[in-house]
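Input:
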Amino acid sequence: MEELMEVENKQVILKGYIDRAPLESDMELKVGNQIKLKISKGCNSVLVKNLYLSCDPYMRARMRDFQGSYIPPFVPGKPIEGFGVSKVIDSDDPNFQAGDIVSGFTGWEEYSLIEDTKKLRKIQQHDIPLSYHIGLLGMPGFTAYAGFYEICSPKKGDRVFVSAASGAVGQIVGQLAKLYGCYVVGSAGTKEKVDLLKTKLGFDDAFNYKEEQDLDATLKRFFPEGIDIYFENVGGAMLDAVLLNMRVHGRIAVCGMVSQHSNHDKEGIHNLFSIIRNRLTIKGFLQSDYLHLFPKFVEQVGAYYREGKIVYIEDMNEGLESAPSALVGLFTGKNVGKQVVCVSRD
Amino acid sequence: MEELMEVENKQVILKGYIDRAPLESDMELKVGNQIKLKISKGCNSVLVKNLYLSCDPYMRARMRDFQGSYIPPFVPGKPIEGFGVSKVIDSDDPNFQAGDIVSGFTGWEEYSLIEDTKKLRKIQQHDIPLSYHIGLLGMPGFTAYAGFYEICSPKKGDRVFVSAASGAVGQIVGQLAKLYGCYVVGSAGTKEKVDLLKTKLGFDDAFNYKEEQDLDATLKRFFPEGIDIYFENVGGAMLDAVLLNMRVHGRIAVCGMVSQHSNHDKEGIHNLFSIIRNRLTIKGFLQSDYLHLFPKFVEQVGAYYREGKIVYIEDMNEGLESAPSALVGLFTGKNVGKQVVCVSRD
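Output:
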């Protein structure tokens, strides 16, 4: 019987540190290592089967050999880590039982032994697609929620610009801003994404930044009276153009700079003088600093979803073996909506 | 009698718009135009004799042909304008009488007819040097006050870095931060200024940025545990180095970027990723947005001065003809302390 409980556990491991956007060859699918599907008493851990894994831009920072960040780097030779939705197989933690569905940090592998169970959340909302717990109701959704309500100081009628607007965070920011009574424009990198923004996601307008020669002129076209709130997801040239188009007392919430995920932005930002001229506030934030609001967020955004007031677009890759290309695709804009990897549906 | 009332009125005029740091040759001393020392009834204006004129970095922005700022450009062929302390010669505004000493916007000339009298302030504190009303108790002092208390969110024990620290604003920020219980380091561009910071102005430490090869390493030396508050007066390379040394939840108050007073910073800022990593708040401000606090400021800083808790260093040029070189000197760091031009002592 004991022997039957040991199964193969495929893993995606990081081969070594990098200091650029990741390539598939930076990761390796490791097949053939075994794992016991029973955990030992007294370990206080939870053994899970991973169902859905999240690909997020911040993960690039964990592929660098840099300890000074808010989160330590991955360990070469070990599985990539990230947010996931998982099913509990066996538990030595009284808060979890076999069969529970949980979300939290897990490994890029079929089965994970989770030792730090304090941050695991048991999923209660079974009327919402499971994978949404790493998207709409997970870290990206909460980033949008905390960023928009706590950082952007929105007012009804504010002119809001969202970059990477069809991405995991941007699509929610835009919809929350619309529900708040703002005028919302988004940018994205393909015609398909722009169409989604204008139709399915209900943005007032949207444009493909790759087709624009002069982002300053583009923004003046969409915001002839300027921008009150910029939800910054990309950095670089877009940020520089936005700075030229902010209204007095405008707010810029910075949660990601997907175009700039290295320690040093070679191009540089040139228009910071606008910070004084327009008395701007630029505020960086991490959703993890606002976790006291998480229950309220799940309640409110869950309700919006059930009422049909908010939708969520996912890009689902099938199979653990597709995880490296899914992650790599984030940095070229291949994903349409929140990038998820389905390891198993149950 | 009437004839005797007409006197020569020397003026410093702007010759034409520029888009670089000003040179003395951009201005001209115009001698020989006459002004009547009596104003006509019904004009609601005030005629003043200018005593002290203020040279401030923001004035460079008014020498450009750019209407989109918070303050319109100067008019070529007309006198430069700026803050000044003046004596009322004649008044058709019931709020002012001949002999009153006032501060407010005036012209770079011996006598000015001030039509917009609403912003003129009658000086009440006659135990404080008159010129301090365009420094310690004027716009620069109020910039320091509003910036430190309203923008920097200071806490006792915070580590504060001030650039251009011996300048009109910086010297007050540093002293207010010390009085608040912060650890304060300043940077300046000469040994003389650094000595003043450490002795007369009571900073905990100071350095000459021109003698440092690697500003990042310098800041790590003075702030081994990082910076909580940066009072930004210079921009450019210093801001970039500061970004690498901010502590989590650090605040950057931006009131000036004297090294970057053009529309486009060629060098660029490269380390904005720190905004996310360290959840920084960068906030631009103008003292004019906080004028409701002005009476409280005059009371508090006036009291600090009378109690000997705060000092103020001025660099006084004598004579209107020295005004162009005084203004130009701001952008090469020639001034030691607040740059003032004395047109007349009474």
